[in-house]
TrEMBL record:
Domain HD-GYP intervals: 114-310
Protein name, per record: HD-GYP domain, c-di-GMP phosphodiesterase class II (Or its inactivated variant)
One Pfam family cited in the UniProt record for this chain: HD_5
Listed transmembrane segments: none
Length: 359
């Protein structure tokens, strides 16, 4: 029998199983490649949501069919599209929420959380298989999903995660109060147009705070999601601990989704460049602890993935350094390839994503 690999859900792991790649947590090695899983490791994995699945060795005569992974991603993409349509309906009828309470928001939030419980697939879909030019509804669903997952990683309790998801869903609601000439403008905004656009957190806050029985943390998360730790954000210009923790989470999710969907101020050439932008902003603008939690988890999901370089060659990711995210250590034709030493090479995209896009 040949040794093969497969992903095993955390709750199905057994002591003695051998992992295929390193598992890192908060910048430290939790379990090294080719090591047996222990009871202590399983406990830490379950408590901290480091990953939801672990790749292990097993005996089999044939390789896993990539079509399963493709079908899973396509199914998830269908769910994202459906959620976006549902959110558009909620936004178009949201005035009724003020009469009927928050039942519709609660129901929609639960659907999102139930669908996105398989963290690895969601992370890959949004981060490494993201589509460009999202509308406000798809963007809001993406931000909700990332915020929900990051909230779990940060150890937020169930009530906090529910409220965080509400806030993330509604974070850009105020933009619907802007004119379409501003939202859909391709050219740079004028000073006055940019001033109007920057008022969207206040417009969203003013409406959301009036929804009966909705915790104030939801509206505060909306109001402050463009604030920055160094005080350079808007609309209040506050800094540090004055910013609500929901806003700190949403800020990361909002920025990252804008980067990978080409709605950022500059075009990025690879998923790892997008991660580097988050890392760089964590030094002054975004919450450092929250960013490190986000980046460390995403790095864990990168290990073992197949990627294509800008020269067309295919490689497997061995290790990603959080302090040098653009230059992972790769395996190419049985030999290690360190992009730190190859200045003309970079990871262009993930190979399985190319297969999906070609269908």
């Amino acid at each position: 029998m040949l040794l093969d690999k497969k992903f095993m859900p955390i709750d199905k792991l057994e002591v003695g199983m051998i992992i295929t790649s390193d598992i890192n947590f908060q910048g430290r090695l939790l379990l090294a490649k080719n090591s047996p899983i222990t009871e202590g490791t399983i406990k830490i994995l379950k408590q901290n949501y480091i990953v939801d699945k672990v790749e292990i060795y097993f005996e089999n005569d044939s390789k896993e069919d990539i079509s399963f992974k493709m079908a899973t991603l396509e199914s998830l993409e269908t769910a994202f599209t459906e959620f976006s349509s549902n959110l558009e309906h909620i936004f178009s009828t949201i005035n009724n929420i003020k009469v009927n309470g928050i039942d519709e928001l609660r129901s929609f939030s639960k659907k999102i959380q139930d669908e996105f419980v398989t963290t690895k697939t969601v992370v890959r879909d949004m981060i490494f298989y993201n589509c460009a030019d999202h509308d406000i509804y798809r963007h809001s669903v993406n931000v909700s999903a990332i915020s929900f997952i990051l909230g779990k990683w940060l150890g937020f309790n169930e009530t906090e995660i529910n409220l965080l998801t509400y806030s993330a869903m509604l974070h850009d609601y105020g933009k619907l109060k802007m004119g379409s000439n501003i939202l859909n403008k391709k050219e740079p905004l004028t000073y006055n147009e940019n001033k109007i656009l920057r008022s969207h957190p206040i417009k969203g806050y003013d409406f959301i705070k009036s929804i009966p029985y909705l915790d104030t943390s939801v509206s505060l998360g909306v109001l402050m999601h463009h604030e920055r730790m160094d005080g350079s954000g808007y609309p209040l210009g506050i800094s540090g601990n004055k910013i609500h923790k929901f806003s700190k989470v949403i800020a990361i999710a909002d920025l990252f989704d804008n980067i990978v969907s080409n709605n950022y101020s500059k075009k990025v050439s690879s998923p790892f460049e997008a991660l580097k932008i988050i890392h760089d902003d964590s030094l002054t603008k975004l919450d450092t602890t929250y960013c490190n939690m986000f980046l460390n988890h995403v790095i864990n999901y990168c290990a073992g993935e197949d990627v294509m370089l800008n020269d067309g060659s295919s490689c497997k990711i061995i290790k990603v350094d959080i302090d040098d995210l653009s230059n992972p250590l790769l395996l190419h034709n049985g030999k290690l390839l360190d992009l730190k030493e190859e200045k003309n090479l970079y990871v262009k995209n993930f190979i399985s994503d190319d297969l999906l896009k070609a269908k």
